[in-house]
Amino acid sequence: AGGVLVVLLPIQTGMLLAILLSLTHGLRVVMRPPAIELFHVPGTTVWWSPVENTPYERVPGVVVVNPAAAINFINAQYLNDRLSEIVDAAPNPRLVVIEGSSILDLDFTGSANLQRAIERFRRRNIDVALARLINPKAQHSALRTGLIACLGEDHTFRTVQEAVETLTRRY
């Protein structure tokens, strides 16, 4: 769209509008990042977003969510709301696994919102785990902000499958 503005309008006006459009788009992505539900690919240990022509299955009682962004004061409430929407739409959720491979950073507000969500889910007898938090900065932030303490060391895992297999044995 920015290129069209540059071609159709005088160059200075077109460039200015294209830059503003690009900044607006960037802010939207930061403020409203994707948070998608992942499903199990049968016969594998892979959890993936549903795509056309790819078989997937819902593991009864398990909800896996991938917030694809740094979790910070700008988007924490949006991601918290999105997480709740996904869990509330699932049939009989017993375990929520936050798949953290896309979490690049976590600030105090983001951590506090996640901790509130964890407490809210646990009051509903829904267990919560964190898997694949691979970014060293995000790992450090999760420790420093108390997210790991809130979850419990026994609720952090290297893979989603490990979290599911370990925690679903309990129910």
Account of the 3D structure:
The protein has 171 residues and is an alpha/beta fold. Helices cover 47% and strands 15% of the residues. The chain is built from seven helices and six strands. Strands 2-1-3-4-5-6 form a six-stranded mixed beta sheet, with helices on both faces. α1 (2-8) runs antiparallel to α2 and α3 (76-89) packs parallel to α4 (108-123). The protein starts with a helix and ends with a helix. 31% of the residues are buried.
Structural topology:
Elements: H1 2-8, H2 11-31, E1 35-40, E2 47-48, E3 62-67, H3 76-89, E4 95-99, H4 108-123, E5 127-131, H5 136-144, H6 147-151, E6 156-157, H7 160-168
Parallel strand pairs: 3-4, 4-5, 5-6
Antiparallel strand pairs: 1-2, 1-3
Helix pairs in contact: 1-2, 3-4
